[in-house]
Design goal:
There is one protein chain. This protein is α/β, with parallel strands linked by helices. It is built from ten helices and eight strands. Strands 2-1-3-4-8-7 form a six-stranded parallel β-sheet, sandwiched between helices. Helix 2 crosses helix 3. The longest helix has 12 residues. It is globular. The structure holds thiamine diphosphate. Thiamine diphosphate (TPP) binds next to helix 5 and strand 5.
Length: 206
């Protein structure tokens, strides 16, 4: 497995950051009932820890579905901004979604990849990202031209602001450390679904 410093050099010397901190910075910018889809793994847990907004959907169970679910929400609700958070291992399992997103090009979709180079939640095994797969290069090659590594926290915030004002999909990748998430999502799939459906206005409150 390549050392963190080698991986950073290959991805433009992106700083290794905290997923918990970046997630809180992202959520702090959301003022318009934006939908946020958290993928399985620690992206989900840190989204939960950053505050349980009714417009958050917490994917539990299958890897690689945050971006596809977010694409569906973005197409169904073009007036709402939609953000998806995914781990590198999960995205690498579902790379085809990138070219589909590029082809459909929703104006309101932002993709964020938290790349720690490991399948952290199942024990820290190395992902192909640790061996050299560059998720930004893959996204660009899939047709998402607006794809970038966040160099540091300020750059991450700048990229998020640009993405939230954009009219085509953006992908932001961040090198993150292997610290555990700040909380664990409460596992109640029915509640997760119903709260989200009400949160995005497609289900009336009981
Ligand atoms: C289709 C599928 N394969 C395997 C698993 C087991 N599994 C759950 S989370 C996970 C690792 C996720 O890695 P990543 O997306 O990089 O997130 P991290 O754990 O690093 O936060 C694995 C292998 C699963 N849930 N679904």
């Amino acid at each position: 497995m390549a050392k963190t410093s080698e991986r950073s050099a290959r991805t433009g010397n992106a700083k290794v950051m905290s997923r918990t901190d970046l997630t809180a910075r992202l959520v702090g910018k959301l003022k318009h009932e934006e939908a946020v889809i958290g993928g399985i793994g620690n992206t989900n847990f840190d989204l939960w820890a950053a505050g349980q907004r009714p417009q958050n959907f917490y994917m539990l169970g299958s890897m690689g579905l945050a971006f596809p679910i977010a694409l569906g929400v973005a197409l169904a609700q073009p007036e709402r901004r939609v953000i998806a958070l995914e781990g590198d291992g999960s995205l690498l399992m579902q790379l085809g979604c990138l070219s589909t997103i590029a082809m459909l090009a929703p104006k309101n979709l932002t993709l964020i990849v938290m790349d720690n180079g490991i399948y952290q939640i199942t024990g820290g095994q190395a992902t192909p990202a640790a061996a050299g797969a560059d998720l930004v290069a893959i996204a660009r090659g899939s047709g998402i031209a607006e794809s970038a590594w966040a160099a540091d926290e300020e750059d991450f915030e700048r990229l998020v602001e640009a993405a939230l004002a954009a009219t085509r999909p953006h992908l932001i990748a961040a090198h993150i450390d292997d610290k555990p998430a700040a909380a664990v999502t409460h596992r109640d799939p029915v509640q997760v679904r119903e709260r989200f459906m009400r949160g995005i206005g497609v289900r009336a409150a009981p």
